From TrEMBL:
GO BP annotation list: urea catabolic process
A Pfam entry, by short name: cobW
Quaternary structure and interacting proteins, as annotated: Homodimer. UreD, UreF and UreG form a complex that acts as a GTP-hydrolysis-dependent molecular chaperone, activating the urease apoprotein by helping to assemble the nickel containing metallocenter of UreC. The UreE protein probably delivers the nickel.
Keywords (A to Z) from UniProt: Chaperone, Cytoplasm, GTP-binding, Nickel insertion, Nucleotide-binding
Organism phylogeny: Bacteria, Bacillati, Actinomycetota, Actinomycetes, Micromonosporales
Residues that coordinate or bind GTP: G14, P15, V16, G17, S18, G19, K20, T21
Identification of the protein by name: Urease accessory protein UreG
Described function: Facilitates the functional incorporation of the urease nickel metallocenter. This process requires GTP hydrolysis, probably effectuated by UreG.
Source organism of this protein record: Asanoa ishikariensis
GO cellular component terms attached to this protein's record: cytoplasm
Localization per record: Cytoplasm
Amino acid sequence: MRPDKRAVRIGIGGPVGSGKTALVAALCRALATELRLAVVTNDIYTTEDADFLRRAGVLPDDRIRAVETGCCPHTAIRDDISANLDAVEELEERLGALDLILVESGGDNLTATFSKGLVDHQIFVVDVAGGDKVPRKGGPGVTTADLLVINKTDLAPLVGADLGVMARDAQARRGDLPTVFLSLVGEPGAAPVADWVRDRVAEPASTPRHHEPTPAHTHGP
Ligand SMILES: Nc1nc2c(ncn2[C@@H]2O[C@H](COP(=O)(O)OP(=O)(O)OP(=O)(O)O)[C@@H](O)[C@H]2O)c(=O)[nH]1
Ligand SMILES: [Mg+2]
């Protein structure tokens, strides 16, 4: 549990359908008993992702807030973050002290990143179904996110994606920043990301939010 009152805010972005909501659900299941946590979801025209999380019962309903952006997903997390900030602050006021708030961006493209005024850390989720070229294509999500998740490794044989190529290209693009390979429908599930999130929450309050990257460690494939 965090020693101060300020929840760590972690943004989860990435292309449409890469598994952001599935990751949020898995993180809630892994962490909800040990951390005081809440979730903000972003969709353009609906509250689809929040509805999914509520139906799945991963958190009590009042810990999940939906933001309907009505505009490009990246605008609401990068350029005009007011609706998301309002949602985060409303959760903190209503629920009291929290350890962690996850903010899921609406699905976008490889250019989407979060404003540092909204989140402390960012996770970028891509999947292998788009082909093993995706990390090589770069873009700020792939190159600068604090953690890159390459999801749906179970689909790699079906789409002919070479996970070794993806690991090599991710490291070339990201240098020392970490990358993890996941399958959320099999092993390892979300465990490597849950560990990374625990480490972020456990960091002392005095640690600068936008610190230097942690030493290199690329898990898997
Ligand atoms: N095979 C497989 N399917 C997955 C995995 N993770 C997620 N999915 C499926 O991929 C689809 C999209 O997952 P979501 O979690 O909705 O993706 P998203 O990134 O939140 O999508 P948007 O919010 O619409 O951008 C769903 O049908 C998930 O069940 C995985 O590891 N393997
Ligand atoms: Mg989603």
